[in-house]
Amino acid sequence: MIRVENVHKAYGRKIAVADLSLEVRPGEVFALLGANGAGKTTTIKMLVGLLMPDAGQLSIGGFDVVRQTREASHLVGYVPDQPYLYDKLTGREFLAFIADMYGMPADAAQQALDEQIARFELHEFADRLTETYSHGMKQRVVFAAAFVHRPQVVILDEPMVGLDPHSMRVVKDLLRQQAQLGTTIFMSTHILSLAEEIADRIGVFHDGRLQFVGTVDELRRTRQRDGASLEKLFLELTSPASSPRE
């Protein structure tokens, strides 16, 4: 469903993503792990069409993200690392705007709005201007907007930032449920416990390069570290000097 082939992106002399190749299957939860500045957000912004790669190809559902941006974007729900809303719209109006952007018929849009407002428990503030929202409230509306058009692919950049424990549980359960229904989930995170709990496979990113792709158990076997925590394995891959093998 998601294919990345030999993608390269640099900002001047700084290489953000180097020769990245990756495939994520339908119905898979894939977590891209890495420290701040590793290249995760750059990768995600290229996937959703906000940045152009310097080289290589990205496709979603068979559509080239650069040459067929509109077709690819219609398949995607996107949760950025910061929740950007229109301050002078209510949460409900913002969701209706998103549904309209995706060309949803009025009846289907209304049903989808009601579903998402209930799912993310937005009733108390859905009809207030978003300029009055807390960060966590904004994040919940952004999640609702990402799912309102029932996307085939959901791309999330640090999805748990600003969510309270209850909302985090709702999102975790939702992502696993959607994957079981065939939705592809691609998320970046530096919360290793989140990846270990819900991801089918992980990718470890360091200095713009993919160090590993596979399951956590495969990573343990590769590193010959049976029973090692994901935290220890991650540190060995990204900063070996700070985590010597025992």
Give a written overview of the molecule.
This protein is α/β, with parallel strands linked by helices and 246 residues long. It has two domains: 2-75 and 152-242, Rossmann fold; 85-150, no CATH class. Helix content is 37%, strand content 25%. It contains nine helices and ten strands. The chain has helices at 40-47, 69-73, 91-101, 106-119, 135-147, 165-180, 192-198, 216-223, 230-238; strands spanning 2-11, 14-24, 29-33, 55-60, 63-64, 76-79, 153-157, 184-189, 201-206, 209-214. The strands form two sheets. The protein has a six-stranded mixed β-sheet with strand order 6-7-8-3-9-10, sandwiched between helices. It has a four-stranded antiparallel β-sheet with strand order 2-1-4-5. Helix 3 (91-101) packs across helix 4 and helix 3 packs parallel to helix 5. The longest helix has 16 residues, at 165-180. It is globular and about 55 Å long.
Structure characteristics:
single chain, about 250 residues, alpha/beta, Rossmann fold, 4-stranded antiparallel β-sheet, about 35% helix
